[in-house]
Amino acid sequence: MGKLEEMLVRNGLIYRAPDGSSSYLEGSLLSNSLVVRNSSGWVTHRVERACNGVDLVVRNVSTGLVEMRISA
């Protein structure tokens, strides 16, 4: 997960604030996907398979919109 996490940090979906608060990437057993949680523990984004079954998409949980596509 190192490369994926680095890409999410570069695109601003995962942050590390100077005060020690941060968001983080976590595996979700219920939905069989990766999720991004904010410093309060709320899920903000889901990392899912794209329609083609190969690429990944990062979907905003509150809007349902795809914010980023990660090519395999």
What can you tell me about this protein's structure?
The protein is mainly beta. Helix content is 12%, strand content 38%. It is built from one helix and five strands, in the order αβββββ. Strands 1-2-3-4-5 form a five-stranded antiparallel beta sheet, with no helix packed on it. The longest helix is centred in the first third of the chain and has 9 residues, at 2-10. The two termini are 14 Å apart.
Can I get a quick summary?
The protein is mainly beta and 72 residues long. It is 12% helix and 38% strand.
Cα separation of the termini: 14 Å
Q: Round the mean pLDDT to the nearest integer and report it.
A: 80
> Describe the biggest sheet?
5 strands, antiparallel
Q: Rg, please?
A: 12 Å
Total of helices: 1
- The number of E-state strands comes to 5
Query: What is the structural class?
Result: mainly beta
What's the SSE pattern?
HEEEEE
What key attributes describe this structure?
globular; 12% helix; 72 residues; mainly beta
